[in-house]
Every structure is written in C-alpha cells, then in structure tokens.
Amino acid sequence: MKTVDMRFDSDMIRSWIGKIFDKYKCDAFDFTNSVTQIVGLYIGDEVYALTNVQEAVDYFGTTDDMAVAKLSASEDTMIKSAFKDVEMISTPVGEEITSVKIVNEQQIMAINDEPAYEVWLTRAIIFEVGGCEISFEKDTVPFSEEITIQRGYNLIDKISDNDDFLEEWDDEYSPAYKREVVVVK
Q1: Chain-centre distance of CA 8, in angstroms?
Q2: Are 143 and 163 a contacting pair, CB within 8 Å?
Q3: Which of 56, 51, 53, 52 minimizes the C-alpha distance to 78?
Q4: Which of 150, 117, 171 lies closest to 4, judged by CA?
Q5: Which of 35, 58, 101, 145 could potentially form a cystine with 27 if both were Cys, beta carbons 3.0 to 4.6 Å apart?
Q6: What whole-number distance in Å separates Cα of residue 89 and Cα of residue 67?
Q7: Residue 143, Cβ neighbours under 10 Å: how many?
Q8: Single pTM value for the model
C-alpha cells in the first residue's frame, strides 16, 4: 500500500501557543469567505504562509494537478496575491493563541478490494484566540486552490464534510475517509 502524508507539522503549531496572533493577510472576500492559494499568518514576530496550490501528485494511481495545502515559515514579502494587481488586506486579531485544533483527514482507497492507497492531509486549522475561533480550511474539491476563512464559535462543527470523495469512482475503486482532530495546547 502506498502512503502519502501531507499533514501540517504539529511541533511548529505547538510553538504558537501563548504567542499573539497579530493578524492574517489575504485577498479581500468578494462573493464568499474564501481566498485563493495563500493566507499570511502573523504570529509573534514570525510570518507563516498557509498555501493551497496545485502541483503534480499521485492521485490514487494517476499523476494529476491537485491542490496541496502546506504551512511554512515565510517572510512578509512572500505573502502576495495569486492574482496580478490585487492588493491583499490585513485583518487584525491581536489576541493570544490559547489552543489550535488541527483537523487531519485520512483518505483510503482499495482497488479490487485490496488496500492500495492511504493519504493523510490537513483539512483545517482552528485557532482559539480571545474566547472565539478563527478557522482556515482547505477546499474539499481536490483541484480547488481555495482556503475558506471563518470566525466564530464551535467552528469544528462547520468544517465541510468530504462525502464528494466517496462518489464517482469506477467500480473497482472503494474509497473511504475519516478525520482526526489534534488539539495543541
């Protein structure tokens, strides 16, 4: 069985606890509360890039361009819109990070009833700050480069299901998925 692990580094996220989530920077919302390809996270004195960009990957036996979510240390100059002549906006947070929930998804594919693929990815991260939450969620459509941003309470209940993953496969494919929530305090 082939295993691919694209989960975020929980040690890096653990280093955020107790630091001030100063702001996040992204394109302005137009019609929905999602942005394309990149969000800058400004935590303490550091800048992190949350990206969801297409790249060629093995998608259950076929090489295809799929959006892959990544989280990495960055610099302010690298936080730029995917679109030409679009100025990003900063949304102030200014609160201490008390915990982060990492929503990881395990996608499993059997071919002709034989386990063939196991893919792990991070579907969302949810920050608890100042008594409320802010979530950043990778779109469930595999090739979509969108990142949905929400603010509020109990955001774990608002993370999209991925039941579309279970549909429209040829008869020899048997897909399944499940999620785990890792709470970092």
Answers
A1: 8
A2: no
A3: 51
A4: 117
A5: 35
A6: 23
A7: 11
A8: 0.96
